[in-house]
Write a structure and sequence with these properties.
Elements: E1 2-8, H1 18-30, E2 36-40, H2 48-57, E3 62-67, H3 74-90, E4 95-98, H4 106-121
Parallel strand pairs: 1-2, 1-3, 3-4
């Protein structure tokens, strides 16, 4: 069974993860029958290993990881390979594939630019 993990950084701020839950819910609706989980690098559960374990326990044999980062920084370049290697060691039969970061997707960049243009046309006051 194929499954997906949306991997985000994490934060200590309450409510920070709400957009990521929304993305997960929208993706799950787009891909019925494919389990979609969230995982976080810091501060918020589940972490990557826990999310993998839950999906493997549910029957996943292939996991596609979508890093919800705009660019390739330290977490993507250093932490993800380490996490993937640990998962492959723990579950040798598990196939793990990694999608590009969001900032490497032209459609995502266009959507962000379009959103900024809309906001510039009708700015709101305050933070």
């Amino acid at each position: 069974m194929d499954a997906m993990i949306l991997l985000a950084h994490g934060a200590r701020v309450a409510g920070w993860a709400a957009p990521f839950h929304e993305i997960r819910d929208r993706l799950a609706a787009m891909r019925p029958g494919t389990p979609v989980s969230l995982a976080f690098l810091e501060f918020i559960e589940p972490d990557f290993e826990t999310a993998c374990a839950r999906l493997v326990d549910a029957g996943a044999t292939r996991i596609v990881v979508c890093p919800l980062f705009l660019g390739v920084g330290g977490h993507v370049a250093a932490d993800l390979p380490r996490l993937f290697e640990a998962a492959r060691t723990r579950w040798p039969a598990l196939s793990i594939a990694c999608a590009p970061t969001l900032g490497e997707d032209a459609g995502v960049l266009q959507a962000i630019a379009a959103a900024c243009a809309r906001h510039a046309a009708a700015p709101r006051q305050g933070p």
